[in-house]
Amino acid sequence: MTQGGDGTRSPERSAHPATQLRRAVLSSYLGSVIEYYDFLLYATASAVVFSQVFFANLDPLVGTIASLGTFTTGYLARPLGGVIFGHFGDRLGRKQMLVITMTMMGVASTLIGLLPTPGQIGAWAPVLLVLLRVVQGIAVGGEWGGAVLMSAEHAKTRRGLWASFTNAGAPSGMVLSTVMLTLTNALTTEDEFLAWGWRVPFLLSVVLLAVGLFVRMKVTETPVFATAEQQATTGKAAGKAAGAEKPPFVQVLRNHPRNLALAVGVGFSAFVAQGTLTTYLIAYAVGEGFARQTVLNALTISSVGAIAGIIGFSALSDRVGRRPVVLSGAVTMAVLGFVLFPLVNTGSAVLLTVAVVLGQSVVHPAMYGPLAALYTEMFGTRARYTGASLGYQMAGLGAGVAPPVFAAASAVGTVLTSTLIAACCVLTVVCILITKESHRNDLAHEPEDGGRGRTRTNPETV
User: Fold this and answer.
1) For residue 419, how many C-alpha atoms fall within 13 Å in the half-sphere facing its CB?
2) Contact 152, 372 (CB under 8 A)
3) Spatial distance between the Cα atoms of 134 and 74, rounded to a whole number of angstroms
4) DSSP assignment of 210-222
5) Which of 84, 237, 301, 446 is the most exposed place for a label (fewest CB within 10 A)?
6) Hey, which residues does 456 pair with through a beta bridge?
7) What are the tens digits of pLDDT across the range 250-285?
8) Cβ atoms of residues 292 and 300 within 8 Å
9) CA–CA distance from 419 to each of 9, 13, 331, 425, 432 (Å)?
10) Which residue from 169, 197, 207 is spatially nearest to 45, judged by alpha carbons?
11) Using CA atoms, how far apart are residues 253 and 250, in angstroms rounded to an integer?
């Protein structure tokens, strides 16, 4: 029923193509939810718990900075995860790497929940905390690219819609982690929460891991990769450039350098906006006198809305193209950046919620949602995991860098912060205008680099 790019049939895909697509999408979504639940749970805990548990011997301000610094290490490790798992994912297959990344994340989060305090093991406690955060960063860096490809490469139509469920997992994980910490905090006293209550959400990662692995093990390898692997094996058996295939990372730098640079530029402002809306604006609102729970409630509401926004704008990109949707989101965010802080400065909880919801549920999804399919379409099959992951994770540094930069800029005023947000959006506008429209591309064919290179139909021997 279903044929690969060389006319060969994929038995598993032919037997139940719709079932495999549903499993792939569900697996990608659940994997993303679990990964970001763990990753963002750490982010919240680093802001409200870790400075008092692991860095209590430091000055409060220094302890907070040290705690948030461990949070940043996760973002710095993500590109490394993209390269490592991208390499093996392009060589051995998407499914195997996704099982490993999910297991790494679940185990690391569980170990954080079991981590002794400095009072028990001294300086080893914060050192081990940082090491486990690095493991989390490597895992999430390898997870995203493989999860997106599992959905996109299984899909025959509406690639943007199906791939977007991976991106929708990020706000879903944020909602879940915020709710779990809030419930644990509500059911314990302050002393109990600091002593053991904060550990409960981390330990629940074991349950999520078991559910995620159960679903993920039922998904077959993608037909696009299976066909490319068969072609590569056949070519080597016939003596065509045996052993000469370049590593995926080298292929990306050699064949798609402009696409990689464009991928980073297109996505950078989306992550800057993400860091602004989910981290910096929250801290800013608390500093302006809002109750922490009021701010977290606004964040939770906007995260729920972001799930629908990401899926909706991604589905729209299947109809009108990736470029118009991302472009409209970037332009609107450039304007919204000058409105966010005045709305918060009113002191109104309603206007605070409006600002966060407008940003995270409406504007940001237009910039962020279509990236899953767009990055998939920018790289060839045998280097797609590496290229998509590296572009995404390098752009993702914007989410880790923006909050501290904007905190420093706040000494000058929020206008400077808004100007910096707009400047990042201009970068995205320029890059998306240069990027070739790709929503109708055939994933079995090698894409052009930046719309100006030559199209190759056999990416296995480049």
Assistant:
1) 7
2) yes
3) 5
4) HHHHHHHTTPPPP
5) 237
6) 446
7) 889 888 899 999 999 999 999 999 989 887 887 788
8) no
9) 53, 49, 13, 10, 20
10) 197
11) 5
